[in-house]
Each structure stands twice: as structure tokens, then as C-alpha cells.
Amino acid sequence: MTEPTPTQTAPAKPKRPKQNPAIKLALEMGPLVLFFLTNAKFGIFIATGVLMAGVVAALAASWLLTRHVPIMPLVTAVAVLVFGGLTFIFQDELFIKMKPTIVNTIFGSVLLIALAMGKPLLPVVLDSMMRLTETGWKILTLRWGLFFFLLAGLNEVVWRTQTTDFWVSFKVFGTMPITVVFALAQIPLMMKYELKDEDEPEHW
Length: 204
What we know:
The protein is mainly alpha-helical. It is 73% helix and 0% strand.
């Protein structure tokens, strides 16, 4: 039997095509913008149906472009379908209003519990978009976990104290900009703890 030579290597695993950031943002914002516009003209119930269709279309588009569905948009889409369905079944807008609270609480809880157990899940959630040291992932995971709880609290305050139209506007023009600003504020941390190509990853 012929021994494999040192130059013989296994075929490289094909890399998953990366999604253009502009397209990624459009897929995330598109359903929300349609939700806002439809609510202004037809009301919350028809807008909820449009949102449900929009998140499914966004996931399908993401799959067609990259042959991959990101975890967070997938979980969010499932929640939209579940709570949107409950909104229609019971004809009660309370369900779709509570969806962001429940989803963000779940995200925050999962991240912080996993962190407490010594296994940050943020690398999985972010689909390995970056490489950080163990310390970097821990700090970033803590920050995002707490931030998700902040978003949950903000959603509760807004929908309980404001009109439905105001809540819809806040969901589109409040939550997303706040999240973008928070994400940009984490760039110095990520740059500080980024693993370079020549660095050896730390073992957890």
C-alpha cells in the first residue's frame, strides 16, 4: 500500500459564501419597515401578518444567497410566527407586543447562563464572524447578555405606557438604532482582543 506523502492533504472544506453587510441589514430591516408602513395604513393585525411573511421571505433569501441561515434571525423568525399566530388566533395585539420582551430575555439568559458555566455561546450566535481571545469572548458575551435584558426592559416600558403606533415606531426606529450604536461601541473591545492569523487560539 502506498503511504501518503507529506504533501498530500485532505481536500479543503468549501467556505460558506459571506453575506454582504448591506444585504444582511436590508434583510433584517425589510420586514420591520414593512411592518411599520402596513401598521400606519391598515392596523396592527394586518401588519403582523406582513411581518410574519417578511421574516420568512428574509430567511429564504438568506438561504438562497449563502446556503446558510443565521441563528439569531432564525430564532427571531420562529418567535414572530408563534406570537404572530397567537395574535391572530386570540385577536389580541398583546402577544406580538410581548414577543421582543420574551425573545430578548431568552437571548440574554442563554448567553449569561452559558457564560457562568464557562462556555460563552456568542461565537456560535455570531456564526464565527470574528476570532477573539477567551477573555474577549467572555467580556463581549457579558455585555451582549446584559444588553438583551435592557432591550427587553425597554420594550416592556414602551408597550405598557404608549400607544400601539408609538410602540411600532419604537420597534423600527428605536430598537434597531440602539442596537447598531451598541454594536459599534464594542469595536474597540473586539480590536483589543482579536486573534491575528499568527496567534494561537486559547483553549477553553
